[in-house]
Specification:
With 502 residues, the chain is of the alpha/beta class. The chain is 44% helix and 14% strand. A hairpin with a 6-residue loop joins strand 3 and strand 4. Helix 5 crosses helix 10, helix 6 packs parallel to helix 7 and helix 16 packs across helix 19. 48% of the residues are buried.
């Protein structure tokens, strides 16, 4: 049976179900497979022509033991998860006219029109499957910079086994993204709008980490997460790399060509990129993965300077990747350093103490192989949206634009291989950015979506909190809700809650 271990190496190996339901490993590390499975050229050839759901079943079966989830159960979870998606292909590819052999992978055809739907549709249904089978309940807690929260809230809404506590920095996401969370009336969805977050979503992650560090609180309230800390998110995202590859690695007759391709990924937290990096380690023929950053440049520093460092947050048009700490980089580095958990732990601790890690030259050489990086300016992002729209009437969201800015800037190094740029959200989620980019007050039809318009007509339900009080307020709210739902507090008996009077 394939087991899962922590990147910090201080906890025993666990089975797949435990890794998914725990979220974080017990030592604060991230779960990864004990060994990475392999994908052969023969398998890729056999998978050519499979639908997205058929391919997802094959790829996920490499990570999930049949004793944990049967073939029938896995196929059922996948079918239910992707039933709400708009497109039969789930993630269609659009070939650009203005660039040679360049394809936009549209990862935004799920219910909340962002790529987070692709991972969370499966992961939330998977978590709920385990909970229902075991007659258990979880409190999911996630921080979002725009897209994880809406997707988590949507897929958790109404599920009797789950409560979703969704934290977001109020001033740093669009109103369209916010309403996708706050317009849900379901009793198990709890949005927290947090003001004055100097480090944006990274501040919220730090509070979540504190809650996880409180063993009693975590155990009693059954804390877990479906942020990209959860292995299930990264695992599911490996599928769209294989799917996209097989869509273009073929000749005119649809035969598998086994050619290498390049992939440009707008990224901040390295979750999506981590999936691409690991599936390439498994055997997928990707020549270069491009870490496409905005001005925050946390990944560009890692790949160009060997520096994992914390800098002041800069607000950009591509707000969902305004992230300072690319936590999933540790997963990738774990495998590139020979699964050296003690070294990963030492680097984690050094970063926590000083806000910076400078990797040795030999380590840089290992993880830089097959990676290029670029940091897009705000002006480049806006110009690219406008230029592509004027050239071919195709509208990119600001994150897809970042991926194209990076691939354009690195075109000479990329060579002649076919290129996939990931577009991770629908433009309708960023109306102010689109208007600024197109320099018009007239909104094109491509920048609208019915789900966004519908959310504008609904009332909002949200808890408001200043970051300085967030941990206290969140603990009180979660404990109150748990006590009302279960009739017990953390000690298993009635007691006074924080902020209450006797």
């Amino acid at each position: 049976m394939l087991k899962y271990v922590s990147t910090r190496g201080d906890t025993p190996a666990v089975d797949f179900e435990t890794a998914i339901l725990d979220g974080f490993a017990g030592d604060g590390g991230l779960y990864v497979p004990q060994t990475l499975p392999t994908i052969s050229q023969q398998q890729l050839s056999q998978w050519q022509g499979l639908s997205y759901l058929e391919l997802a079943f094959e790829v996920l079966s490499l990570f999930i033991d049949r004793s944990i989830i049967s073939e029938t159960e896995l196929k059922g979870i996948l079918k239910d998860a992707y039933a709400p998606f708009e497109k039969q292909e789930i993630i269609p590819l659009h070939k650009l006219k203005s660039r040679s052999d360049t394809y936009i992978m549209e990862l935004f055809h799920g219910p909340t029109i962002s790529f987070k739907d692709v991972g969370l549709a499966f992961l939330v249904n998977l978590v709920n499957f385990f909970l229902a089978r075991n007659n258990q309940r979880l409190s999911l807690i996630v921080a979002t910079t725009g897209d994880t929260g809406p997707a988590t809230a949507h897929f958790c809404a109404g599920k009797s086994q789950l409560d979703a506590w969704v934290l977001y920095p109020k001033e740093l996401i669009t109103k369209e993204q916010e309403r996708q969370m706050t317009s849900l009336a379901h009793a198990n969805i709890h949005p927290f709008a947090v003001s004055n977050c100097p480090k944006g979503g990274d501040d919220l992650d730090a509070v979540i980490a504190n809650l996880y560090a409180d063993d009693e609180f975590k155990k009693t309230l059954k804390l877990s997460s479906v942020n990209s800390i959860n292995w299930g998110r990264v695992m599911m995202q490996t599928v769209h790399y294989v799917y996209g590859y097989l869509q273009i690695a073929q000749d005119n007759d649809g035969n598998y060509t086994a050619e290498q391709i390049n992939v440009s990924v707008p990224s901040g937290g390295f979750g999506n990129l981590c999936a691409g990096a690991l599936v390439r380690e498994m055997g997928l023929p990707i020549k270069y993965l491009i870490a496409a950053n905005n001005k925050n440049a946390c990944l560009d520093r890692i790949f160009s300077q060997g520096e994992f460092s914390l800098k002041p947050l800069q607000n950009t048009p591509s707000s969902a990747i305004d992230i300072l700490i690319p936590i999933n980089f540790w997963r990738y580095l774990y495998f590139k350093t020979g699964q050296n958990g003690s070294q990963i732990k030492a680097w984690n601790e050094a970063f926590a103490d000083t806000g910076k890690v400078q990797f040795p030259a030999d380590v840089q050489a290992k993880y830089q192989q097959g990676f290029l990086s670029y940091s897009s300016t705000n002006e480049q992002t806006l110009e690219t949206i406008n230029n592509v729209y004027q050239q071919e009437q195709y509208l990119l969201d600001p994150h897809g634009a970042v991926s194209l800015v990076a691939s354009d800037a690195l075109s000479q190094q990329l060579g002649s291989q076919k290129l996939i740029c990931l577009a991770t959200a629908h433009p309708a989620k960023f109306p102010k950015v689109i208007k600024q980019a197109l320099q018009t007050d007239t909104f094109p039809q491509a920048a609208t979506h019915q789900s966004v318009e519908d959310a504008k007509r609904l009332s909002e339900k949200v808890r408001l909190c200043d970051f300085s009080n967030l941990e206290y307020a969140l603990r009180a709210a979660m404990q109150t809700h748990w006590q009302h739902s279960h009739g017990k507090n953390l000690q298993g008996k009635d007691s006074q809650l924080p902020g209450s009077s006797s």
